[in-house]
Amino acid sequence: MAKLTKKQKEVAATFNVAKSYKLSEASSIVKETTSAKFDASVDLAIRLGVDPRKANQMVRGVVTLPHGTGKDVKVLVLCTPDKAEEAKAAGADHVGLDDYVSKIKEGWTDVDVIITMPSCMGKLGPLGRILGPRGLMPNPKTGTVTMDVAKAVKEVKAGKIDFKVDKYGIVHAGVAKASFAADKIADNANELIQTIVKLKPTSSKGTYIKSITISSTMGAGVKVDLKSI
Fold first, then answer.
1. Tens digits of per-residue pLDDT, 143-159?
2. Edge-to-edge, what's the strand order for the sheet holding 41-48?
3. β-pair partners for 216
4. How far is residue 115's CA from residue 185's CA, in Å, rounded to a whole number?
5. pLDDT at 1
6. Which of 9, 21, 64, 181 is a good FRET partner for 125, with 20 to 30 A between their CA atoms?
């Protein structure tokens, strides 16, 4: 059996890995046990009792975290010239259309979110094989295909994230930074959890939320007591 490092021993002495904690307690533990030398992300892993292979059990949505993500989100707006100044004024990092479509075709994807207009989607179709695997393809369901590009940019910059259950029935999402106060980490995590609860498919039978684990980058996972949420 591999020996625990000094840091792992310190973390193991802080909490019981087999125990489930209230969300507020789990958030505090994650913050206290984060040992990364950078401002680590705090992530949630929510295992759902759904079958993602069935279209009527797909869980997907958006949520605006009350305290933001703590991340400087780089936004690209692909729009017509009449919307360019509007997008820039809202805080978009990159604004354009044909020039950026060409850059993406050449492999450039140095952004976190792409927002576009319905009339521009035709130009993005051929980019699906590049943007799709990276989770960058705009989608009306997540609010990234809209005529109100300024509003969409402001929401993303303020902490709006989209999430989707993976093929294993788990939703993974970053909800905060380890530098956040523990109560703010808990608030953001709870906002995502409650949003997912509201999205329960009517076709899903049995236990909907099977488990919730909160962790930081390179940190130990802390189980959340489902009764506490």
1. 999 999 999 999 999 99
2. 20-21, 222-224, 209-216, 41-48, 170-177
3. 42
4. 27
5. 46
6. 64
Rounded Cα distance, 73 and 158, in Å:
9
Q: 147-200, pLDDT tens digit by residue?
A: 999 999 999 999 999 899 999 999 999 999 999 999 999 999 999 999 999 999
Mean residue pLDDT of the chain comes to: 92
Q: DSSP for 79-147, please give it.
A: --HHHHHHHHHHT-SEEESHHHHHHHHTT----SEEEE-GGGHHHHGGGHHHHTTTT----GGGT-B-S
Nearest Cα residue to 115 out of 160, 70, 71, 72:
160
Q: How far apart are the C-alpha atoms of 14 and 25, rounded to whole Å? A: 12
Q: What's the rounded Cα separation, in Å, for the pair 35 and 187?
A: 22
Tell the residue number behind the tokens 């009350």, with chain if given: 66
